[in-house]
Amino acid sequence: MNRILIPVAVLMFVGGLYTVAVSERPWDPRIGVEQPIPFSHRVHAGINKIPCQYCHEYARRSANSGVPPIERCVGCHGSALLGGIQPVTRPWTNDSQPPFEIRWNRIYTLPDFVRFVHKPHIWAGVQCQECHGPVETMDRVVPVHEINMGFCVSCHAQRGATQECFVCHH
Amino acid sequence: MAAAVEPSNIQLSYLDVDRTAQRVMAPAGLKYWLWVAFCAFLVALGGAFWTRQIYEGLGVTGYGQPTLWAVYITDFVFWVGIAHSGTLISAVLFLFRTRWRTAVYRCAETMTIFAVVTAGLFPIVHLGRPWFFYWLCPYPNERFLQPDFRSPLTWDFFAISTYLTTSTLFLSVGLIPDIANMRDISIGWRKKFYTILSCGWQGTDSQWRNFSMAYLLLAGFATPLVLSVHSVVSWDFATMQTPGMHSTIFAPYFVCGAIFSGCAMVLTLLLPMRKWLQIEDLVTVWHLDNLAKVILFTSLVMTYSYGTEAFVVWYTQDPIEIMTFTQRFFGLQGYLAIGMILCNCVIPLILFSPRARSNTVILFIISIFVNIGMWLERFVLIAGSLATAQMPSQWKFYVPKLTEVLITVGSFGWFLMNFSIFTKFLPIVSMTELKEGITWLRKAGRERHPYRKAA
Amino acid sequence: MSDGLSRRSFIKLAATASAAAAIPGCEPAARKLIPYVVPDENLIPGVPTFYATTCAECSAGCGVVARVMEGRVIKLEGNPADPISQGAICARGQSALQGLYNPDRLAKPHRRGGDGKLTAIEWDDAAKLLNDQLAAAAKAGKDRVAFVGAAQGPALDKVTQAWAQAYNSSRVIFWEAFSDEPARAAAEACFGRPDLPIYRLDQAETIISFGADFVETWDSPVEYARQFAQFRMPKTRAGGLSIGHAAYVGPRLNATAAKCDEWVAANPGSEGAVAMAVLNVVVTQGWVSQAAGVDVAALKTLVADYDPEKISAQTGVSAATITKIAGWFGQATDGAVALAGGPDPQAHLAAFILNAVSGNLGKTMVFLDGAPARATSSLADVRAVIDAMRDGQVDVLVIAGGNPAYTMPPGDAFKDAANRVGLVVWAGEVPDESAELASLWLPTHHALESWRDSNPRAGVYGLGQPVMQPVFPSRPLHDILIESAHLGAGTAGQAIAYENAADAVSTAWQELQGKIGASATPKQFWDDARRHGGVFQAAKENTVKLAPAVLAQKSPVPGAAAPLTLWAFPHIFLYDGRGANKPWLQEIPDPITQVVWDSWAEVHPETAKQLGLVKDYEGARLFAGINMVEISTPSGPIELTVTISPLVKPGVIAVPYGQGHTSYGRYARGIGVNPFAFLPEGTRNLAVNARKIDKTHKLVTPLGKSDMMGRTIIEAMSLNDLAKGVEPDFGEEKIDQPYEMYPPFVYAGHKWGMTIDVNSCTGCSACIAACYAENNIQVVGKANVDLGRIMSWIRVERYIRDPEEIKEGPPVYIAPVLCQQCDHAPCEPVCPVFASSHTSEGLNAQIYNRCIGTRFCENNCPYKVRRFNWYAPEFIEPLNFQLNPDVTVRGAGVMEKCTFCIQRITTAEIDARTEDRKLIDGEIIPACAQACPARAISFGDINDPNSAMMKRRDDNHGRTYTMLPEFNALPAVTYLRDVYQEKGKA
Fold this sequence. Notes:
Shape of chain A: extended
Mean pLDDT of chain B: 86
Number of strands of chain A: 1
Helix content of chain B: over 70%
Distance between the termini of chain A: 54 Å
Number of helices of chain A: 8
Mean pLDDT of chain A: 78
Order of helices and strands of chain A: HHHHEHHHH
Structural class of chain A: mainly alpha
Shape of chain B: globular
Number of strands of chain B: 0
Distance between the termini of chain B: 8 Å
Strand content of chain A: under 5%
Strand content of chain B: under 5%
Oligomer: heterotrimer
Low-confidence stretches of chain B: 1-6, 446-455
Largest sheet of chain B: none
Number of helices of chain B: 15
Order of helices and strands of chain B: HHHHHHHHHHHHHHH
Largest interface: B-C, 52 and 60 residues
């Protein structure tokens, strides 16, 4: 009997390892993604207590919260830089790197086929931290929660928000 | 009754049975492997086209509005139907203590298993996103999502899986004594193989008692499935509002059709096998004759069902139903419906003649026709009805493309390959029950022989 | 605005995030987020911005609003402030986007070498080449430079003129294939005015159209469709309920005729004669209004030869019919109007005279003060320039729009002439037949990328502004011209004061402000104009009298009709061929023949029999015809597939314009034939002989059977029944006590529903185009339509009956069919995975990412309105720029369907919630309802009895019905029956 069972066990073990190796979540490295410039949310949101929506200004008005424009950085960090900022104008077809653009690495990506809108959540008084975790304590942002349907639905269930598929999936 | 249907195998001794069985399962020759290779080639062909279909999307088929179901679902129903007669012969006839089943039931039951396995593939082939087929089964997930139990397709999922499990159990349990028999006379890896499968069968009285009890119980379990499974399948269509399908007669009508086509398929398989494996004296003309009678009877019932269907359509006086029904026979693809009537209602009538029933060639040809006829019936019901549904502006008749054809062919290859392999490695005729039969006949003696009058 | 434009280009960078989130189906999510450097304060990523501009697809000049998201215009909508479109827009207008994002657009200037090969060159080289040649030509003598192009609005056309002047030439042709020159000539003759009147169909009791397909392509279809819908509304006249009388005179029953009470099947080209015959009856019956003050005697002599009896042989119209429609016209107490279309001058003359003598001048046909000068050049000028080119008097020819090589009759004369020109320059977007003649190609901006103005009529000054950054590194045509004048034309060129086209337009608007004397400051005036898409004023009506002279000039009576006549008509979507490179317009079926991606020869069964053809395919397969005929024309034989329909006059072969392109991009090339290529100038019909050839070519259509077979799909009821409140009996039994298996849904909040007025619907298919644009619906192409895989969520159902056989009711039934959003939705319980589920607001939701593609739902849907993705959708760059980020792009293997534009519903609901208020009725408008020119579709909350939609149901409760009621699906869509005039009651 063992002659059959052992190979089977080995196969299952290898299969399991493979699954772990190829799957993205939740085995992602828990150290934050490195960004092009050493920006610290802890310093900004934590120590200096800058409200999230001061920089992510579109959150309460739109679907996406928006990445702060360079102008916003310059606003505090002194206008000396301002001279260095040239407006980026490039036609669609020209792929050359425009001057002065920061290519931030994305932390949070939504699954396919779902439409998430920040606006109603902000207006419903949902704290940013409830989904994004205590960002104000992080230097590099680390995704605390895996943003998947279970996460959304359980919160919606708790708060008695709508649980209709069509609201997010259309 | 003519002498042809005399049960000639009463002369058999136990040894003959064993010998024949062993001969059948003797290591195969080149011919056999060529045959298996051919089937495997068909499977590969179908598989290749299925892969392409998954990769490029269902667009590679001939599907389109409004016939969104066609060949694949037809194949599904067809194969499920094939499966049924197996259970009927092995379980129902067992409960009715029908003697002639002993020689053919193993073959039929094997057919059931592989037919269900084949059938189970088609709903997946048919899906737009087959990689999500498992969403049909309820399992705990973080999304709190479950299948909708109102949907006939969900019922289908359970019906088919239940059917597969029960049939497999039934077959494997029935195999135990025979396998034990083979274990004792075989060597090498086969011995190990049989040792595992025979579950330590020693043939003690207690084992025999438990065995027959278990067998009886499983037969009891299997029997209702004969009716339920195909009824559920029929509800896929009967619950639809589509004219031409929305009819309460479907459940009995499908079950009967299933048995009809199944018995035909048993014949189709048995006749060549009987010849090539030289088991004529195990599976005699007498058995074939009885199968033929079942086919004849079910064919008559089918004819009646067709009649009823037509009557109901007329009786409703629903113009849409009537139009769809007329289109079925006199529309662009009317020839399919006509062919169906020919194959299912007219040609089987030949079986009224005893000579035909005892002539293997005629039987074989008829069985082929019945298979074709029953496939056509499902196609006409599904693709035909959908083609001429409520919105005239959306009418369109469906014409299959190479992909569907080859995947269907592949399914036959798949079925035959499995079946052929089975015949070589497991006893395709039940020695145990044959021997029982023999003892019964011996006891009975000539004077109490069931066919005495005939003789 | 203009500086805002330059900044908006950042958004495209920042947009990657939301764009990727919106298009997960076809591309991996972007991993980089690129912020603005300086944000545009009036712009929020993820929230659309609306820019008012002017539609440039036809000369109607509707005002449109461009919906811009992340710097890309994703949808065009009618401009509610615009008096012409009033918030509606036609299919062609919608498809302007596919002209903008057309993958075949020219990206760089090209030059044709000696070997005829094209090589890409830089703008500077191109400009230099152009200017040098122009300068040389100008030096060589007068009028050696010619410009042939489409009119682009007064301001820019002035620039073109100035440019030509600078190069010492006056040869400027503004070419329009279906120009209104015949009408203008007639207006000149009748009223001594260069301008055209406007019509008020809604104020008429009788409309007689002599070949004017006013709900399809004639003049201003959006406006006239709206007016016609109001005209058809049952209203009380003289105590009784009336829908007035409408008659269409023409050889083919088109969408316009389908909505008229009477289709007067006249021989091709005899519309004028019929008009005169009608005039004859009006005069002889003494229905001439005294107020008109015309010399009746002169009239009598004018129409003497047109006695209905005598003329009927030539026109093919029975005297009885003529008398009948003349009676409608002459006895109309509530105003009548005659419209004329087509090139036949007599028709226009007669129509004007009819309106004049029946005293409808200033009522239904109005001349306005300060009407714009003619935009297009007269045929004489065109001929002059072509002759000059042929005689080698032109060194440089600039072709900019209008595609003269394709549209100029007869096709080859222009080509020959152009080949004798030293340098032919083509400036445009998608290289077309005219570009084939040119040796220098200049890519120009699309109308939506450039500044322009329009002045379709007195008091309506539309302003066209760029709504996004250019998709390709092209340049505005008039920037090129101005620059060329400045650089190449020396002092003469310097005289042009504008820096560029934008400058020219803004200057023109300063002048305009002076002209109309607006009080605002120039800046304010300019800003308001850009905000509202122009300046719209009520123009003073002018009282004109019929010039007596016109009654003297008699036109010869037409000869007898040829046994077989080819008659070409403008395609409702492709028009004169300009639409052929837009996939939407190719894939939306023609409302009458339902043919897609093709041009056809439409013949009557009798004619077909003579040609040895039989109709053997009705309802069988998805095609409209397969057997081909060879038709002899002056410029060689053409081969066309015949579609046999009773909706065309016997002895006529009706062929649409628009196809038969040899160039003009991948979507247009190599389809069908181009009637311009063989029809003589100034006419649309041609005596031909045809024979059946044993070639076959499938005419593909998504339509199965054209026979409704008595099912409750599209219904019509007679005016009497409506007046009496009689429920017409349609045979099917009524369900008094429907059996409910599940408890009925309870809708605490809203329950969305729709009311569709079949009486108003003209089948113009604007709703379909709008749906394509709004919901990212893929275009599947001819082969897949043939397999029944057209993806549009809303379709225009068309059922026909033989006009000769029917006693009562219309010969053609047309209505839009979309998801009925049933309460007892048959699609819902059959889905094994809840992909098709019911929402708390009464919608049948289709959850794409839950769908596994069993296709059970569509099988069980009685209305067959669901669509399955057989392949993964393909949006060729840059067509994908048009995708709506609020709507998922569906992947292969999932079912999709109409959502009542759920994205608009949720957006509005979120807004309402965040602003802590209730939803306002009319706040949510689905794309189809928004586009509908006839206002046939209205959307609203069923739970709110005061919503406009519910009110519409109540006001017309006598006409309400639901489709296929016997299935008891309880649709949320309620239709209002078509209303027809009893045949007996004339």
